[in-house]
Amino acid sequence: MVVANMIGAGVFTTSGYALADLGDRQYVMLAWGIGGLIAICGAVSYGQLAQRISESGGEYLFLSRLIHPAVGFIAGWVSLLAGFTGAIAFAATALETYAMPEAVRPDWLNPGVVGIASIVFFGVLHSAVLKTGLRTQNLVVAVKLVLISAFIAFALLKFPAQWEGMQVQTEAADFSIYALASTLVWIALSFSGFNAAVYVTGEVENPNQNVPRAMLRGTIVVTLIYLALNFIFVYGATPEEITAAHDIAAVASESIGGDLLAVVIRIIVSIALLSSVSAMIVAGPRVYAKMASDGVFPRLFYATQRDQLSVPATAIWLQVFLASLVVYFSNLQILLDYLGFTLSVSAALTVACVFWSRHNSDAGSAGLLYRGIALVYVLSTIGLAVLSAVGRPQQLLGFVTTVVSGLLVYFLLARLKRPV
Length: 420
Hints:
mainly alpha, Amino acid/polyamine transporter I, 76% helix, two-stranded antiparallel sheet
């Protein structure tokens, strides 16, 4: 679940845009390294929260229990609009970009059809045939990891002779803290799945140990994979070829191994994005089902028991509908800006709950260490978000719109005398 949520659209699309902003491949690699360290701090902090509250629900649950139900509802609303709806749409849009590039797209096939079809397929799979859907999810993730590892090994065997980018010397670009911050906010989206396990905590055996362990180990493994992949992407082809490229993985692969490797990486990325869409359709609706069981969301979205597991079928179809709508009306870079900023702020507020947690206050020096790690995550994430908003004010606008609309819905439900 953790790996499937993390290795998605971001790592295969972000670095082309990042290079356009930062102007230097070394800065791009530095940004991915910093992003990995921040994500590891976040995984450790979420693990502490999961040990205290061992139920499914993610940010909604933590903020509702530890701060206030209204704050928790806003976090659930962010999950609905950005954390899952937007992220599923982002992965599905990137899937279409790689699986059906414009050069081979038939004239009769409208943009968005492939992405929407993938969302609907997994909606059917996870709502109607639960056990088959979960087995399919595990199989796709396993295949994804094997193929990505094989690609990395093959590309490194060609290093440096067939890496065109290694033959190009570029002048160092001027460093911009605002550009770096914006890039790190985008990269944070690629790491945002580190917390995926907390959405299904209530369905995990021995969650106090397995959930924190899964998040930490998964985040470390994915960080190493990301560094290897991005080294290949930014140095495998010339800067001119990959700057602002939305399919940077395919461009770099074609440069290293010709058309055949470009086709292979498109297949690998498509499988990776399929597993990402699948994993988020599993995780997201569990949040809305938890909100319904707490009385802050319509009872229609309760989970029902099937195959000895909870199946939030109605919530799954809400997720499918909203994500399909976003695929139809948006594009990759708009989603990058909105999702990166919104999810970063939401995660930082959630990790700040560590400071309210008695679970750590009684742990002596270990508790101080965990609080220090949480502080690093909160300060770095909020600081980067603020710097990014200075350079791209539209990110702040999207976040404020999401929060205000969530508050309006919360109080509207209260006025309708729903239990809140």
